Amino acid sequence: MDLLGTLLKGNNSELLSTLTSKGFSMDQAQAFLPAALGGISKAVESLDLKSLLSMSSSEQGSKVMSALDMGSISAALGGDQNLASTGVQALLPKVMELLKSGSGGLGGLAGGLSKLFG
Length: 118
Prior knowledge:
The protein is mainly α. It contains eight helices and no strands. Helix 3 packs across helix 5, helix 3 packs across helix 7 and helix 5 packs across helix 7.
């Protein structure tokens, strides 16, 4: 399991609820969530983590959205890019908060690494 998947483990029900509140059926949400998280993970990995973590929420969202492969993500919804975009935009604030939060998030990991190697 990748780092993002590890950090988000245990938050699936909250993330699924977020998607269903945006018009996803539970089946769509369950099919979409792994694709969306995988896509977000790849996007985050391609960006400068230190810079990303220092951005405002809206800047983070824009930066991650521009790095996403929405075609791959929307395939989980039969190619519906509008619904996929709605889903990713709903998930991003929660995902970024989990990534930044405390010692369990990437912010804590980045801080720990900078102490070791900085």
